[in-house]
Design brief:
The complex is a heterodimer. By secondary structure, chain A is an alpha+beta fold. Chain A is built from two helices and three strands. The chains are: A alpha+beta, B mainly alpha.
């Protein structure tokens, strides 16, 4: 089927109240309503979801793998950004 | 294995009729698995088929309990011959093309949604419980088939033509959904099953809404073909049962 008639949609599913929607995969569908139904039929068959978002894949702007070095490597030597240098008193319990 | 014959009371026949509707329609939809126009629809039609199969199982189990002969749901599904089946003629019709399958599903689901809603207050507690579960499933079937029909009717010239042909081909079987047998009247009066006349306004409204959106004309209510509820089927059912029942007939009691 031509891509123009059946564009790809990214599917996000929220498993439980309070959790964030997580990327589950993608579906082909002619429009938003049919994409929702395709997402329901493809990704919630085992009780995985309480809420579904679908987004046209074309609406997503992705980083270029070529930029990996300039985007992500500068953080490699900044270990002080990890909150692992603090002593947490026992009384605090679970944080 | 020898076929079984069920000595039907009006109640048993009414429950078997709805079980047969669900089973035969589920089988037809399952024929699409691996053949649907796209993977997503393959799963969607399979999901609907499994909803219907689940309804059929509950209804056959209920029928077996009413019969009281310790027969199983499988006995009722696999060991009766075509004249014993009580399903609507609409549901045994071959899949045809995708438009034909969607029109068949839409016309029946639009009837079953208000039917199950009404059956939720059945005086038969088991039927009421089955209805409470089936009603949600039917709501999705109407939504899925309805949205497809809107896109097919209001789509390309070819999809519009195929939808129109499917409506014209299947419309003659819709009258059977609203027909009542004389022996069902006491069940209706006792509040066991809904009177089809109370289902009609909801069905008419759903059909009118979707066909208008789909730019499809509602066929004229002409001569309606009946007979399924009495076991007088079209030739399509025998072929369907030959495939569906083959394994249990060839290997009685086979399980896995």
């Amino acid at each position: 089927m031509p891509e123009a008639h059946m564009p790809v949609w990214e599917v996000f599913i929220r498993a439980r109240a309070g959790l964030a929607h997580r990327h589950a995969g993608s579906v082909h569908a002619p429009d938003a309503e049919m994409a929702l139904q395709a997402a329901r039929d493809t990704y919630t068959r085992r009780g995985e979801g309480l809420s579904i978002w679908v987004v046209p894949s074309a609406a997503i702007t992705a980083s270029d793998p070529v930029d990996k070095g300039s985007l992500f490597e500068p953080t490699a030597d900044k270990i002080y950004r990890h909150p692992t240098f603090y002593e947490v008193p026992d009384e605090v319990g679970h944080m | 294995m020898t076929s079984i014959t069920v000595a039907e009371t009006p109640l048993l026949r009414a429950v078997l009729a709805r079980a047969d509707d669900a089973l035969v329609h589920a089988h037809r939809l399952s024929e699409w698995v691996g053949h649907a126009p796209m993977l997503e629809e393959d799963l969607a039609l399979g999901n609907v088929a499994l909803d219907l199969l689940g309804q059929a199982r509950s209804l056959y189990t209920h029928a077996a309990a009413i019969e009281g002969l310790e027969r199983s749901e499988d006995d009722l599904a696999y060991l009766r011959d075509a004249p014993q089946f009580r399903n609507l003629l609409l549901l045994e019709q071959p899949n045809g093309d995708f438009a034909n399958t969607i029109v068949r599903l839409f016309l029946h689901a639009a009837f079953m949604l208000p039917w199950w809603k009404a059956a939720m207050s059945s005086t038969d507690a088991t039927l009421a419980a089955i209805a409470a579960k089936a009603e949600k499933e039917a709501a999705y079937h109407v939504r899925h088939a309805g949205e497809w029909l809107i896109r097919l009717g209001d789509g390309t010239e070819e999809s519009h033509r195929r939808s129109t042909e499917a409506l014209d081909r299947l419309w003659r079987f819709t009258g059977e959904m609203f027909a009542i047998d004389a022996e069902e009247e006491p069940l209706i009066e006792a509040g066991v099953i809904p009177h089809p006349a109370i289902i009609r306004p909801a069905w008419d409204a759903t059909v009118a809404h979707v066909l208008a959106e789909a730019t499809l004309a509602r066929p004229r209510d002409g001569w309606m073909q009946l007979g399924g509820r009495r076991g007088t089927h079209t030739e399509a059912l025998g072929h369907l049962l030959a495939v569906m029942q083959h394994l249990q007939r060839a290997y009685p009691g086979a399980s896995w």
